[in-house]
Amino acid sequence: MSSSRRTTTTMTTQLYPENLRLSALLFRTAGLGLSIGVLVLAIQLSSEGGTPVFAYVAAIWCLILNPLDIICLLSWTRIPPGGLIFLDTLAVGFCVGGILNNIVVKNDGDGNNRPLRNPGLVNTSDWLLGALLAVHFIMIVSGAIDCCWMAQYGRKRSSRHGSSRSRSSRSETVTRVRVTRTNV
Q: Which UniProt keywords apply (predicted)?
């Protein structure tokens, strides 16, 4: 009767605090739905004679950014929080530009000089752009909290374990699993 013993070490990486990851996933999903709505309204406004250029830019930018971060959140990888803050700041700027562009479209100052058949679409587009702006502003605040969390706990972890890295982009937890196998 022989017995063999094997020890396995597994590295588990905690990329986000769980509450931030779930809230980011919720807000990114809401932002994805809002950006689809903004794109649909921008297409409708274009068919009625308006030219909501910045609404298109904001919708397309958010249609790229939100699914990218959703995929990262679901696959347990991450975009660095400072990069996300920058990308979300661009999204906020595009949304503000879209709202300002809608004001110009609503007041017939976009160069077409054609009255809109349904001016209520501009108001709806403004509301959706405002909600999209709020979602990305919340994501900026969440990214700032994440940066502070990483700076505080990343430094403590590295000094406690004697690592030469002063700021780590990840917090690693080592889990040891012992498997005993007996051959008869």
A: Membrane, Transmembrane, Transmembrane helix
Q: What are phi and psi of 168, to 5 degrees?
A: -105, 150
The pLDDT, as a whole number, for residue 112 is 59
Where along the chain do its domains lie? 17-146
Q: Are 140 and 92 in contact (CB under 8 A)?
A: yes
**Alpha-carbon span 136 to 64, nearest angstrom:** 13
- The b-or-e profile of 22-37 (16+ CB within 10 A means b, else e) is ebbbebbebbbebbeb
Q: What is d(CA 74, CA 93) in angstroms, rounded to the nearest whole number?
A: 27
Q: Which residues contact 73 (CB under 8 A, 6 or more apart)?
A: 16, 21, 24, 25, 28
pLDDT in tens, 138-170: 999 988 888 887 777 765 544 444 444 444 444
* Neighbour tally for 74: CB within 10 Å: 11
